[in-house]
Design brief:
The protein has 345 residues and is of the alpha+beta class. Helices cover 24% and strands 28% of the residues. The chain folds into 3 domains: 157 residues, FAD/NAD(P)-binding domain; 51 residues, no CATH class; 78 residues, D-Amino Acid Oxidase, Chain A, domain 2, CATH 3.30.9.10. A hairpin with a 3-residue loop joins β16 and β17.
Length: 345
């Protein structure tokens, strides 16, 4: 079998890159063994502001522009709904926090994202005597549904097995893997990159994140609530609570410690009964400089990597997938911020 691309891994990076290949009539096969869970357990939130530091997300304007049409295009292609427009509201715990919000909302780069008005709250389940601040241009992508429906739609291109690096033959103008010959191979493996002999020299750290799903019939909020944790409405009185950050545990197994941490945080800002109905965990592919890992192998010209999306994969994936596609197919230079050559010295 001859194809244009072999894609290894099918999280948010892989799906976005494959969608570009589809749009440009490029043929491909995908190898995915479901070993990496960070995309399927993601909260799916897109939010252009780092609320902890009141700074814009890296490339927020460019990323949001792509988010707003790529996921809508994908939803049309898959004949489903993926994008749920939801405001994000930051709960204030003091007058000082209110004042910090007003200062931030006046800053260049943040004015279009932070509403200068304080939202009053009459919901007894969410005590907010100092009100809430609203982040604009936010929402949630149903990442689990996206990955499942994309895989179902393109079932003929998927090979559900682990990729064996020892079986890869690299030639000057092609790569050969078993009975498949391709012009290029792109590794979108998330934390699985640590086992990849061609790219495991890159400084991918990996940060475990855990989420809870709760059922809270008396909560009744239709926005994302940010306090010591995020609370994301899913519909029918179900909510996602997240997320934890663990830099030592590199397993996909939910932990009692993660659950305890999230419940303790949740109980500080909601006052109603709820029941935990699910807990999930995954390893985010994080990088020390908080920038993606995108680029070409230093020795083999037809090997590429698309990785390191960190905690904001929903926003970053369309942007870096487009960058890599244009680099490979149109010889457009990668931005230095994301190019893996930044670690070559």
């Amino acid at each position: 079998m001859k194809v244009d691309y072999i894609i290894v891994g099918q999280g948010l990076a892989g799906v976005n890159f494959c969608y570009l290949l589809l749009q440009h009539s490029k043929s491909f096969v995908v190898f995915d063994d479901n070993s990496q869970q960070s995309s399927t357990v993601a909260g799916g939130l897109y939010n252009p502001v780092v609320l902890k530091r009141f700074t814009p997300v890296w490339k927020s304007d460019e990323q949001l522009e792509l988010v707003n049409h790529i996921y809508n295009d994908l939803a049309s292609y898959l004949e489903t709904t993926l994008d749920y427009k939801l405001p994000v509201k930051r709960l204030f715990n003091s007058v000082e926090e209110q004042n910090n919000w007003f200062v931030a909302a006046d800053k260049y780069g943040l004015q279009k994202y932070l509403s200068p008005k304080i939202c009053n709250n009459n919901n007894m389940a969410v005590p907010a005597p100092y009100g809430l601040g609203e982040v604009l241009h936010t929402g949630r992508i149903d990442t689990e549904h996206l990955l499942a429906t994309f895989k179902k739609k393109l079932a003929s291109t998927y090979i559900n097995e682990s990729f064996n690096y020892d079986d890869l033959i690299i030639k000057e103008d092609a790569v050969i893997y078993k009975d498949i010959q391709a012009k290029n191979i792109v590794f979108c493996e998330g934390f699985g990159l640590k086992k990849n002999p061609y790219f495991n020299h890159l400084p991918l750290n990996g940060t475990k994140g855990e989420l809870l799903t709760i059922h809270a019939p008396d909560l009744k909020i239709d926005f994302v609530l940010k306090s010591s944790a995020f609370l994301i409405p899913l519909g029918n009185d179900y909510y996602t609570v997240g997320a934890t950050y663990n830099w030592t545990d590199k397993t996909n197994q939910p932990s009692a410690e993660g659950k305890k941490e999230l419940l303790e945080k949740l109980k500080t800002f909601i006052k109603c009964d709820f029941k935990v109905v699910n807990q999930k965990a995954g390893i985010r592919p994080t990088v020390k400089d908080r920038r993606p890992l995108v680029g070409q192998h230093p020795k083999y010209d037809n090997l590429y990597v698309l990785n390191g999306l960190g905690t904001r994969g929903v926003m970053i994936a369309p942007y870096v997938a487009k960058q890599l596609y244009n680099f490979i197919e149109n010889a457009i230079k990668l931005e230095e911020d994301i190019n893996i050559t930044r670690f070559s010295s």
